[in-house]
Amino acid sequence: MSLWKIALRSLQYRRLASGLTALSISLGVALVVGVMVIHAVVDQSFKRSAQGYDLIVGAKGSRLELVLSTVYYLGKPIGMVPYDYFLELTEGRFAPEVDLAVPCCLGDNYQGYRVVGTTPDMFNELEYRGGEKYRFREGENFGWGEYYDAVIGATVARKTGLKVGDTFQPGHGETPEQGEKHKPFTVVGILAPTGTPNDRALFVNIEGFWEIHAHGHYDQEKPAEGSEAKHGTEEHGAEKHATEEHAAEAASESGAADSGDKDHSHAVAGDANSHAAHPHAQGDGHMERHVTAILVRTNTKRMTRAMALPKIINQEADAQAVMPAEEVTRLFEGIVGNIQKVLLVFAVLIVIVAGIGMMVSIYNSMSERRHEIAVMRALGARRLTVMSIILLESILLSLGGGALGLLLGHGLVGLLAPSIMENTGVVVHALQFQPIELVLIPGLIAMASVVGYLPALIAYRTEVADSLSE
Amino acid sequence: MLELRQVTKSFTLPDGSPLDVLDIEHFDAKAGEQVVIVGQSGCGKTTLLHVIAGICRPDAGRVLIDGWDIPVLSEADRDQFRAAKIGYVFQTFNLLPAFSALENVMIGMTFADGRADRDRAKMLLERVGLSHRLTHKPSQLSVGEQQRVAVARAMANRPKVLLADEPTANIDTGNQQQVIDMLRGACEVENVVLLLVTHSPEVARQFDRVERLEEINRVLVKRS
To answer: Do A336 and A294 have their domain in common?
Structure first.
């Protein structure tokens, strides 16, 4: 019969007190696990969401806001950059350093979910989470020439009930209450869940996006315009400016445009002037378009020059280039990380308080166990032996509580996973273990040894003759 | 086998004055010998057993068991010696409530050499008629059964000396004789010195050698 078994039997004998003590420890450990897992997953997910491209080019302003609005669809876009700047990246002076550039236009919503005007390259060429290709749960990507086709994220599909073939009308602004309704888009594809903010967005052909803003709110009786127009991208250079005719038409509707309004947070903000200031509007016969951000994948074959690209762009007045990973890391280290550190400290404090509770519980039991310890000593147990038994009891309680806490913690994460997924797009699994959890068990053993020391010392000091006569 | 020479023991009272309890010039018991010690309450019977068991150290004198002088050993060595060479049966049984009857017998073995001989523990319980009670906790046993478990536990490590401190005081008359028979039988089988403290004349008269502590303890002789 080992000392472990003796300690275990003693705990079993006081099963209610032992169970409650272990439970209090398990709750603390569960909180630590929950905070650690969610912290790690959110951290990873935030950082991975911006993977697949190296730079975000957008209007001058807050670097963080540009990243938050472009990658996470949080807050308002900080401004616009001319479509010409996009062409600089794809065809102009920056083209050799750019492997891929994908434009994004923001500013509309559908039932509160962001509507993003972009090109099919978003899903054909870009990857997410470090090398994963976008897959379609249903349907397919929209085509270059299908202006009013759209692809929706998995969460949007689930929450709005939109299916392939359904249509939806985006509204101006970031919230459902805002603005007027646009011409409808048809859902042609539903993305498989990605665990990125893209699950919570709708993606429409940028040509259609530009068109609806050029023509204002949708009139049911007015036939859709521009459906025959062609998109303008690098790969389709011959067709790129085929919409000029349409743009001229749009411009005649909206009047002369002040396309230099870079502080305008939306291609059209919904006010009376916004249509005139719309990127799709034209001035002196040339089509003026704007985008809110450009996702840039640099050319790895020209690494040295590509690395200098942000610096060159930032020295100019037209735009800024930010490295999303850097901004996200700064955000995490500066704000989010600190909040999570505070949560972690609280959770650790709960474990420590539970540990002190364990000490009080064992300590209180010592007065009634003095006689039992004296009997063990009379049977030949050394002082160090009885001390070890009490320490082992403390360790067993901590380990039991710790194991239960790990189960509870991961169970908690599993329970919260759907809610986290729905509200943040972050995919969390109950069985996502973090390496730092390996520290928990040695940490608990160390804590148990410390808190068990005082009661163990009482056992050590128990005088046999005196205690036997009690 | 067991020799006491010039053993004295006193305690300090709360007012600081000493209280002499033991002053035994000479006491011997041969291997296998069964001795009853009788005496009034408070005459030092339990203290004598504690000194022999090494639970407390005498102020002076020698306590020799199997050639080992117990008082000169360190406390840890005395504990080890007690676990290996001395069996102890208490008046109140003192079974450990968290453990089954079998585990109560085995726990003493663990303290002796870290290993518990399950088969011997079972055999001892069988010998005291408790083979059907192996997994029962003390609270599930009658007082008589509890004391029989205590007898088995005392014999677990094949002791040289078995000390029994009023082992029948807390059990009914029917069980008293059974316990005495078991103690005597076990000591006979394994050639163990039995030192049994009792108040009971019925128990005392069954033994060939009866020592009155008032006669061998000079503290009491002086008082009288």
So the answer is: no
Quick: pLDDT tens for A322-345: 998 888 888 777 777 777 778 778
Pairing of strands A149-152, A201-205: antiparallel
Is A37 found in the same domain as A174?
A: no
Q: Which two tokens stand for residue B27?
A: 């006491």
Task: Assess whether A304 and A431 both reside in one domain.
Answer: no
Give residue B178's pLDDT: 86
Q: Structural domain of residue A228, as residue ranges?
A: 55-322
Segment A375-397 shows an average pLDDT of: 92
Q: Which residue of B has its CA nearest to A11?
A: B98
Task: Answer yes or no: do A1 and B46 touch at CB < 8 A.
Answer: no
- Give B107's contacts in chain A (Cβ within 8 Å): 1, 6, 376, 379
Residues A42 and A59 in one domain: no
From A10, A371, A379, residue closest to B83, measured CB to CB: A379
User: In whole angstroms, what is the distance from residue B137 CA to residue B99 CA?
Assistant: 6
Q: Do the Cβ atoms of B116 and A1 come within 8 Å?
A: yes
Backbone angles phi, psi at B54, to 5 degrees: 80, 10
CATH topology of domain B2-223: Rossmann fold (3.40.50)
Q: Mutate which of B48, B51, B75, B94 to disrupt the A interface (most A C-beta within 10 Å)?
A: B94
Total structural domains within chain A: 2
Q: How many CB atoms lie within 10 A of CB A236?
A: 14
**Poorest-confidence range of A361-365, A427-431, B114-118?**
A427-431
Beta-ladder partners of B65: B2, B68
Range of A34-48, A137-151, A434-448 with top mean pLDDT: A137-151
B109/A379 Cβ within 8 A:
no
- Judging contacts by C-beta atoms under 8 Å, the chain B residues touching residue A7 are none
**A270 vs A95, higher pLDDT:** A95
What is the per-residue pLDDT for A424? 65
Residues A383 and A424 in one domain: yes
Those of residues 369-398 in A touching chain B at CB distance below 8 A are 371-372, 375-385
Domain limit, last residue, from A278, A298, A322 = A322
Query: Which pair of tokens denotes residue B104?
Result: 């109560």
Residue B112 sits at the chain A interface (C-beta within 8 Å): yes
Interface mutation target, options A379, A388, A393, A461, chain B, most CBs of B under 10 Å? A379
Of the candidates A245, A236, A234, A155, the one whose C-alpha atom is nearest the C-alpha of residue A194 is A155
Q: Are B146 and B176 in contact (CB under 8 A)?
A: no
- Asked whether residue A340 falls in the same domain as residue A449, the answer is yes
**A357 and A462 assigned to the same domain:** yes
Q: For residue A390, which residues of chain B lie inside 8 Å, CB to CB?
A: none
Whether residues A86 and A195 share a domain: the answer is yes
| Residue bearing tokens 């102009």 | A92
Asked whether residue B91 carries a pLDDT value surpassing 60, the answer given is yes
Interface predicted TM-score (ipTM) of this complex, two decimals:
0.90
Whether A277 has a pLDDT exceeding 50, the answer reads no
A167 has pLDDT over 80: yes
Query: CB distance B98–A9 less than 8 Å?
Result: yes
Q: How far is CA A265 from the centre of its chain?
A: 23
Task: Please list, residue by residue across A17-46, b when 16 or more beta carbons sit within 10 angstroms of its beta carbon and e when fewer do.
Answer: ebbebbbbbbbbbbbbbbbbbbbbbbbebb
Q: Which of A290-294, A437-441, B97-101 has the lowest mean pLDDT?
A: A437-441
Contacts of A17 in chain B (CB under 8 A): none
pLDDT bracket for residue B171 (50, 70, 90): confident
